[in-house]
Design a protein that fits this description.
Elements: E1 38-41, H1 50-66, E2 68-70, E3 81-83, H2 87-103, H3 111-128, H4 133-138, H5 149-169, E4 174-178, E5 182-187, E6 196-198, E7 203-206, H6 211-217, E8 222-227, E9 234-239, H7 242-263
Helix pairs in contact: 1-2, 1-5
């Protein structure tokens, strides 16, 4: 098996000199599995903020194609500041920001997510049947929210840069390695002291999904509860491809159990 450790003596050539060992492979810093182990990354909640900068670029494109130029606000006379004529574009952008900010910090797991959806739908149906609601909603047309092209581009670009730096780089500096013998917290720079737990008797459970974070915004992310046999339990949040990682973790732990069963007389 590649990468395994053998207790056999080194082979001796005819000249009496021991054969040279094959060169060891260098450590791959971003490899997913080594020697049957599984590397699991925990991401921050910023992972779910991608709809904001995506919708910001969509709003910028619509403003560029359908915008109205306002020369009074420009820095020079030969330039104009573009605004979209519809105020609902700016309101929709604010709505996306508020939706993502709220539902990435409020956790509603399992059935509670669907209960919230039913409650919101019921409230909407009740409000729609209130007498005189048409006149009250008519006041919303007086709300004028206009964001210019420069705002959409600047805000979305800065958020995209932060998103890539955190999700794509910073979140990969620390990870959990699940191997048949132990579970270890490892660090890319090696400056912090990681924790090591024995996998014997360990229970790993995937927590119920949050519809808004794990399904709607995360596209298959999930949270894990790890309970060592003789230590306090801990959670690993916002793991990408959680269902696939769950299978690999269960396989690694099952390998430990199989090895113990084979070693028994």
């Amino acid at each position: 098996m590649d990468g395994g450790v053998s207790n056999a003596p080194p082979t001796v050539e005819r000249s009496g000199q021991p054969a040279q060992e094959p060169p060891r492979r260098g450590r791959r810093l971003f490899s997913r599995r080594q020697d049957g182990s599984v590397r699991v990354y925990q991401h921050s909640n910023l992972l779910y903020w991608w709809p904001i900068w995506v919708w910001g670029y969509v709003c910028a494109g619509l403003t560029y194609l359908q915008g109205i130029g306002v020369g009074e606000l420009a820095a020079s006379r030969d330039k104009t500041v573009l605004f979209h004529p519809s105020p609902w574009l700016g309101i929709s952008f604010i709505g996306v920001v508020l939706f993502v900010a709220v539902f990435t910090n409020v956790r509603l797991r399992g059935v509670y997510s669907f209960v919230l959806i039913l409650v919101v739908g019921l409230v909407y149906w009740l409000v729609a049947h209130v007498p005189g609601i048409e006149h009250a909603l008519g006041w919303l047309s007086l709300l004028r929210v206009h964001l210019n092209l420069a705002f959409y581009l600047t805000f979305s670009t800065l958020l995209l840069a932060i998103w890539v730096a955190i999700v794509g780089v910073a979140d990969h500096f620390t990870w959990w390695r699940f191997s048949p013998s132990q579970v270890t917290e490892e660090h890319f720079m090696g400056l912090a002291t990681g924790h090591t737990y024995n996998s014997e008797g360990m229970a790993v459970r995937r927590l119920p999904n949050d519809f808004f974070r794990h399904i709607l915004l995360g596209w298959g992310t999930g949270d894990f509860m790890v309970r060592p046999a003789h230590d306090d339990a801990f959670e690993i949040h916002n793991v990408r491809r959680a269902r696939h990682k769950q299978g690999l973790i269960e396989k690694a732990i099952a390998t430990r159990i199989t090895e113990q069963a084979v070693s028994r007389p």
